[in-house]
Request: fold
Amino acid sequence: MDMHRVEDVGRLYSLAARVGATETLKVAFKEYVRLTGLKLIKDEEKVRCFVLGRGLVYLIRFSILVCRCFSAVILASLSRMALTVITLSG
Reply:
């Protein structure tokens, strides 16, 4: 993640999905986000930079990474939800 290896993260998710390990990956991803956030707020210089605008850049980069890596999963989930709604309302 720190090296912006988006394709590798996407491949990792695909492999985890094939073997039923997405929950493990989710826990690891959540922990990474938590620890990264803690590091940011514990470092006074990073807090100043974060407050002065770099935080927004970090948030945008992180959002783009999540969208690029997990867009297929998100779209599949939305499709299933839409089908459920159509079935229930039909």
About this structure: Residues 6-89 form one domain. The chain has a mean pLDDT of 75. The two ends are 43 Å apart (CA to CA). The helical segments are 6-18, 22-42, 44-89.
